[in-house]
Amino acid sequence: MHLRCYHSTVSRRGKFITFEGLDGTGKSTQLRKLAAALREAGCKVVETREPGGTATGEKIRRVLLDSKTEGLSSLAEMALMFASRAQHIAEVIQPALDRGHIVLCDRFTDSTEAYQGYGRHLGSENVLKLHHILCGGLQPDLTVLLDFDPAMSLNRARRRNQSAVHPAKSDTKKKLLQLSSDENRFERQNRSFFARVHQGYRAIADREPQRVVAIDARGTPAQTHRRVAHAVEERLKLSVGRQSILSMVNPSRK
Ligand code: TYD
Question: In testing the pocket of ligand 1, which one of 105, 115, 201 has its CB within 8 Å of the most ligand atoms?
Answer without folding.
Answer: 115
